[in-house]
Amino acid sequence: MKSATEYKHPINVRANQMDIPVRGVGQDDYDDKIKSAQLELERIQSEREELERKKRELEELTSRKRLFLAQQVELTEKLAAAITLIEREIYELREETDQLDQCRRCFAEHMDSIQKHDPEKWTRDNLHEKLEKATMVTDLAADEYEQAAAYFTGTRSGAIFGKPSKGGRKTGTKTNGESEFLSQFINGFAFNLPLMAFGAIGLVVYFLK
Hints:
Layout lengths: L24 H91 L11 H26 L23 H33 L1
């Protein structure tokens, strides 16, 4: 049996029919515009993030500035008040130190005068005279000691004279009595110093006889 006759139909193919079609100019422009738009969006997003970062940084700096201003005002007030109190304290300490030094010199003179009297060396003939002089010296010393103790009562130095300290000098101006005592104390010491010197010289001359 004869096989069936195969039918062959010729296919006409053009030379450029199998080539990949090339995009047109309009399509390329569209793609470029999309890419440009995406880049622009990315740039805008980056700028927006940068602006947000700068905004947060500015808010933080503004908050720190407000905190600094508040601390500046508070510390300035505290330091100014402390400086004023310290200066006042230093002034009062110096004033009290000067007064104590005046007391120390005065008491040293009194102690020296008192120690020069030796009752064991007194005789019956000069007992009255020696006792009168010695009593005057001790009375003067006791009087000035009591005045000093009264003056320094309530100050840091009050305990020196056997008075309980009140924890420091009281603020405010001194009373008239205190001012008068200080004036009398200084003037009295200046007035009595020559007398005590002459008395000491007289005693030395007496004992050397």
